[in-house]
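User: Show me a protein chain along with its predicted structure.
Assistant: Here is one chain, sequence first, then structure tokens.
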Amino acid sequence: MAIFEHMREMVRKIFWILLLTGVILSADVKVGQRRLLIIEKSLGELSPEERAQRANDIIRELVVDTDFSPDSIELIREEETFYIRARDKNILAVAPSDTLNTGISQDRLAESWHNDIISGIKQSRQNSLSTENILKFSLMVLYPVFLVVLFIILQKITRAFSRWVMKQEGRLVKGVRFGKLEVLKPPQEIKIILQITIVIKYVIFAIIFYTTLLVFLGQFDQTSPFVLTLGNKTVEYGKLLLNNLKNAFEVVLGAVLLYVAMRLILILLNYFMKHYREVPGAQNNLSESAYSALINVLRRAVMVLFVLSVIYIIPGAQELAFALLLIFILIIGLSLVNLLRDLFAGYVLMARGVYQKGDRLKIDEIDGTVIERNFLFTIVRTQDGAEATLHNSLILSKPIIVFKKSEAKDED
């Protein structure tokens, strides 16, 4: 009896194993060779095999229909039965009897079968030899080839451009000059242009590579969410970069316009000063050395104002420009105190006509004849033939004795 009971238990276990694996009294719902679920119970007049066959026929139609979306498969409950439905066709019905001896509730079993069918159809489409999948596979093969060909084309273009630039030495490429100052010689300028060309080549390649990579990865369901997120971030940073480039372009354009304005001011300054020197009597008011010093001071002042103006048009640098302007004014004011004092004294002396060229001038221990005077200083030739340069501020601050030219002749 013990052996009989033992054999009956073994038969019972084998029966349940075969039942669970679908060998007997069960049927598989498949997509291709992939098993999605097992139907073990009959429903009405339909056996498990008939239920599975009907579901497989409908699923096969849905897989090959490219206009159908698996996500549109619905799970509907009518009275005590759940229906997995697509396009008004019931793929499969989940009855209470399907949950017997499973320990799973009817709604959970229906939801599980519903999800299995959707995922099975999607996976089957991804693995099928459809036109879309063939194109994706071709894209996977051709994409590296495209990158290699692109890099070779960019390499040839940059080499051709480099050869052309090197032939332009002394023609179009003449170096960089600011007036008489040579900032860059032609070979140095060519070297910089070639380095910039190499950088531009790699930048173009990186942009095309990044863009095409996003398009490539966007073709696959596994990477499309990542591509969407990365694309949004790229657009965000791209807008920020374009805004910065716009600001940089405005600064460069403003700097160019300011540079043109500075050159025009210097040209006008040289023009007026040159014509001032040609005015009769102007050389008596401003010597050659004073004229050169004044021109240099005005030029440097214009250049400093140009630099400060460029700093001012940089976004967020207005306060720095004002601070540098105040420092510049302070430095100029402190360094030009004596010069301004001499200019003011020279103006007073000339306006009052205190002395003229040829008059005899006596101040402190200096006694001599005025041979030159201007707004800054006066040159006196002493009786022993020496020349003494007196600042106008010194003359105005001390008592002086002037013997007019006519009076000096009468004394003689």
